[in-house]
């Protein structure tokens, strides 16, 4: 008897290696912009402070030393990557007791429900990434459950200085504490670079439990100890299961749209009908529409390129865009050109 299309497909799948089947699953990577290819805010920052600075979706927590960040072209050879997240120390320092320094990605709870956290069927997750550092030794990675104040940390080792190394770490599923099914910050993934004694004086918490600060980063080397230390990170993938699949490369436009849910820049230009008019009656404006719906109502800001100003700039809702209203305020120009930013980051 002839097999149906469904039966034939199932038979073929059962004969394939399990890693090949897993590699074909779409959007298996929980990380957004794990290949560091999107950098809407810019490609470098000198003397960084805390915040989202270069590669989209990657938050940098700075507390030790003077640090420069950049989107770098240094990548592992032959792996398909074009960019990495670069950290360069320009002035070294040792951490105070309460200091922490890490690279972090934050996740919405509604994107994590399939992990079944807080149930008997909680899924393990596997993290894989490529890293190169001038400082060898022990580094710590932490998953922190914001909703339930729970955490788990694992260590890995940089074996050879200034050499690309691929690391794979599996975290067991957590049967306690569900993630909220919402668009809030529910989970963090942190790559520690340095930590003070408030976070290193205990025993590394390698199983899910109520968060204890002293157990977060035990054994972590002080990467920013010396000027000229460098670290590069790319190819970050976090997925359900106990096996790391090949990195999931997405098309640039798809990756960009996923990032624009959290941050987007809109370029604007206005022109009044009469050259040199400066009265409010000649005000003109419009709406710059978002490319994608934002995670939540964003904070909006702008940078004007011309000498004139936009009198008001307001968010019209996270589904629509940014409203601009302006007029000529000096000179004889009759146009405005600038950039508006909509920030809905976690």
How is this structure best described in words?
By secondary structure, the protein is mainly beta. Helices cover 8% and strands 38% of the residues. It contains 3 helices and 19 strands. Strands 2-3-6-11-8-9-12 form a 7-stranded antiparallel beta sheet, with no helix packed on it. It has a 6-stranded antiparallel beta sheet with strand order 1-4-5-13-7-10, with no helix packed on it. The termini are far apart.
Helix content: under 10%
Strand pairing plus helix content: what structural class?
Answer: mainly beta
The counted number of beta strands is 19
- How large a portion of the residues is in β-strands, by DSSP E? 35-45%
> Uncertain segments of ≥5 residues (pLDDT<50)?
3-22
Give the CA-based shape. globular
CATH superfamily of the largest domain: Galactose-binding domain-like
Euclidean distance between termini CA atoms? 56 Å
Major sheet details: 7 strands, antiparallel
Order of helices and strands: HHEEEEEEEEEEEEEHEEEEEE
Sum up the structure in keywords.
2 domains; Immunoglobulin-like; globular; six-stranded antiparallel sheet; 346 residues; mainly beta; disordered N terminus; Jelly Rolls; seven-stranded antiparallel sheet
């Amino acid at each position: 008897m002839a097999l149906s299309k469904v039966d034939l497909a199932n038979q073929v799948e059962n004969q394939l290696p399990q890693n090949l089947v897993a590699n074909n699953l779409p959007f298996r990577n929980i990380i957004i912009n794990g290949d560091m290819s999107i950098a809407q805010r810019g490609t470098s920052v000198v003397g960084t402070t805390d915040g989202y600075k270069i590669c989209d979706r990657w938050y940098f927590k700075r507390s030790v030393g003077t640090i420069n960040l950049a989107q770098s072209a240094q990548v592992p050879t032959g792996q398909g990557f074009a960019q990495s997240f670069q950290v360069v120390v320009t002035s070294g320092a040792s951490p105070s007791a309460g200091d922490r320094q890490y690279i972090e990605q934050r996740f919405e709870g509604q994107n994590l429900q399939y992990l079944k956290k807080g149930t008997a069927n909680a899924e393990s997750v596997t993290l894989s990434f490529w890293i190169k550092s001038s400082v060898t030794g022990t580094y710590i990675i932490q998953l922190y459950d914001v909703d339930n104040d729970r955490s788990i940390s694992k260590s890995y080792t940089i074996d050879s200085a200034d050499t690309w190394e691929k690391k794979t770490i599996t975290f067991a599923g957590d049967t306690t504490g569900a993630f909220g099914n919402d668009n809030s910050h529910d989970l963090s993934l942190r790559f520690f670079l340095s930590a003070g004694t408030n976070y290193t004086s205990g025993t590394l918490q390698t199983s899910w439990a109520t968060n204890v600060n002293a157990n977060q980063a035990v054994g972590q080397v002080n990467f920013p100890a010396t000027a000229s230390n460098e670290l590069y990170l790319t190819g970050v993938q976090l997925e359900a299961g106990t096996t790391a699949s090949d990195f999931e490369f997405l098309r640039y436009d798809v990756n960009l749209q996923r990032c624009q849910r959290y941050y987007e820049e809109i370029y604007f230009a206005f022109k009044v009908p009469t050259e040199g008019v400066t009265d409010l009656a000649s005000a003109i404006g419009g709406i710059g529409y978002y490319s994608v719906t934002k995670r939540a109502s964003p904070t909006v800001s702008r940078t004007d390129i011309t000498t004139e100003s936009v009198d008001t700039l307001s968010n019209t809702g996270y589904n629509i865009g940014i409203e601009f209203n302006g007029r000529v305020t000096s000179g004889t120009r009759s146009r405005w050109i600038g950039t508006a930013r909509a920030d809905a980051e976690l």
